[in-house]
Amino acid sequence: MTSTHRTVNRIVRILESVARSGATAVSLATLARELEAPKSSVYGFVRGLCAEGYLDEVHDGYVLGTGVAHVLGPAENSVVLLIEDVLEEISARTGETVTVAVRVASSVVYVHSLPADYEVCYVPQLKVRRPLLPTSSGKLFFALQPKPGDEELLAGFEPDQRSNLQAELPGIRSSGTALNRGETVPDVAATAVGVFVDSVLTAAITIAGPITRTEPHLQHYGDIARELLNGAGFGQP
C-alpha cells in the first residue's frame, strides 16, 4: 500500500480545507489548528502554494487560486455535470437526498448533493474525507472496483465491518447496488449505485433518508437509479 508522505499530506489537507470554505477565506491560525502543526511550518506551505497560484492571499486569510482550476481542467469534464440530468430525475422520482460520492485514496468524499422533498431528511456534509466503511458508496467501491492495497486498508477497520462487507460483496456485485441500514448514522438508510464513464467506476450515486421512511424502498431506489444511468450510458458494463 502506498505510504503517506508528510509534506504531501499537509499540502493536500491545506487545499482541501480552503476548498471546503468556498468563498470564505481560511486564516493561517485555522489551517495550523486543523493540521495540528506550528504556524511557521504551515506558513511555509501556504507561501509556496500562493507562489504557484494554488492559493490567493486576501485580507483575512486564503482562498483557492486560479492554478487549481487550471490543473483540474474545465468544469465540463466534471462527472457531476455529465450526469446532472440523471441526478435530477432520480431526485424527482425518489424524493430523497441524492448525493454524488467519489473515492479519494482510502476515503470517500461527497462532492455534490440534491436536497430531499421532505422537511425531515438527510443532509450530507460535502468535501470532507470520511472512511470508506460502512458507507454504501464505500462498499460499492470495494466491490466493483477494488484497488491495490485494499486488503491492507480493510485490515484497519473493525472486525465486524470487515465481516459484514465480505458477506455483502457477492450481492453487491450481482445487483450493482450497495446498502447501508443505519450503520453510519443510526437513523439514516442509504443505497448506492455506480456511475461508469468509459466502463470505469468513476463515482457513486447515493439515495438516503430517515431509516423508517427509506429502508423499505432502498432496493427500489437503487433500481430506479441504475435504470436511469443505463439509459444515459453511464450504467455498469
Automatic annotation (TrEMBL):
PROSITE patterns noted in UniProt = HTH_ICLR, ICLR_ED
Return one Gene Ontology term, BP aspect. Answer: negative regulation of DNA-templated transcription
Q: Where is the HTH iclR-type domain?
A: 5-66
Give the InterPro entries listed for this entry: GAF-like_dom_sf, HTH_MetabolicPath_Reg, Tscrpt_reg_IclR_C, Tscrpt_reg_IclR_N, WH-like_DNA-bd_sf, WH_DNA-bd_sf
One Gene Ontology molecular-function label:
DNA binding
Residue ranges of domain IclR-ED in the record? 60-237
User: Superkingdom, according to UniProt?
Assistant: Bacteria
**The entry's keywords:** DNA-binding, Transcription, Transcription regulation
Keyword Transcription regulation carried by entry: yes
Protein's UniProt name: Helix-turn-helix domain-containing protein
